Amino acid sequence: MLLLLLACKDAPTDAGPTLTNGPVPEVTPAAPTLRRLTTSQYHNAIVDLLGPDVLLPTSLEPDIQVEGLLSVGAGVASVSSWGVERYESAAISLAEQAVEQGTLTDCDSTACVDDFVADFGRRAWRRPLTEDEVSTLAEVIDWIADDSGDFETSLVYGTAAMLQSPHFLYRKEHGSSDQGGPLSDFELATRLSFFVWNTTPDEELLDAAEAGELSTDAGLEEQARRLMEDERAVDGVRNLFTELYTLYALDDLDKDPLVFTHASADLGPAAREETLLLVENLLLHEGGDFRDLFTSERSYVDRRLASLYRVGAPSEEGHGEVWFERSDGRRGLLGHASVLAQYSHATGSSPTLRGKFLRTTVLCHTIPPPPGDVDTTIPEADNSSPTMRDRIAIHLEDPACASCHSLLDPIGLGLENFDGIGRWRDTENGETIDASGDLDGAAWETPWEMAATVRNHPDLGPCFTTRLYDYAVGRPSGEGEEDLEDWLAVEFEISGYAVPDLMLSTVMSPGFRNAGAFDVE
Q1: The pTM is what?
Q2: Which residues have a Cβ under 8 Å from the Cβ of 258 and sit 6 or more positions away?
């Protein structure tokens, strides 16, 4: 599947002359963090450990985002006293279900407790347990079995103890000392599995780690390729883009139904699936160019989105393939409701929010913070200022606002043909919408043309490289990693902007395989 791209690393691109990349630069990784499992990682790990039929908890300690990425926010996320209670309740409930369903173990007496603890603990904690850890947990199970006279009850509490342990809930990828250095094989197995699959390592990967194979180039590459060829890699890449473009926020999409009569509770989830299906098919199954995500004339809509986009529904149930024409006005990610509705207000569109998304998330540009007392109110429409372009001009005239809004609004105005939920419109308050604009010297007249401007921006590929690297290592990169990120960006370009190639290059890089020194004050 994903290896289709990896076999095409030397394919020519249309990006200009053929590039030659030198040896991978040395790197000084930033200080490591202790990462708590995100909610999706927790759920995926539980399913892998206990089976697909357990009822997953819906209320856990909330995820935190840093630069939009939950996997980076996990490095600063703590657990409140409320969260401790929720993890405990979840662990007991999950263990009870697994024991009742008979999916946990074949062990049915205290005679095999040590083997159960060692086996389940290795999978749950992503490393072999020490003798002391095995004996302590086995003693707890034995004691409960003796006290209650019920071995299944003892299994429940022994399993729950392992599932609420920090060794399960947190990922330790710190290397062997406070001074940093190479990650251990088991730390690499964990980092690799959560990066590619967004879940815990499988038995084969743990076996490779125990055999010391991941500390070699050949062993690590073999396992990386195996994981990327597996179906679970699709789930991993979908999670990457869910975090990258904050698609998780679409579950809480809030629109005023009096203003947007087409808005409903199913709009956000449907819009997210449209974007993820394009990512999955274009970038993975077909080995497409990442930049084409912004100009693809193909998309995947259900009946709900077909009505919104005014196209024929391709299927009675679920999402199906559709193709947009120039007369439709929309193409690529910037024509998706997942972006247009998310980066808008409850009662209208927002050129500022859409421009900020493009500048900061898509191109990794830095926007100066607004003054503390700035007035962000946009005047109501009237005869002299019927369109958003007219009303938002105040931001470009006020010096206190212009430093930010001159970087954001002219870009966001290029998407004004789409209202606050992504529905096309030619006019606003009876006046024709002017969607022309300019992005760093490249001009457009329509949203269709704007898509190509974004696709061809020189910062698009390097920005994605940086954000993927941060996602992979679970923290914002530091100054000592800038040369490596530049090198990875060139590798990405050489590959024809193939996402699986970039993932493999990232895994094999010294930044992925090493930890930085701890900050000691």
Answers
A1: 0.93
A2: none
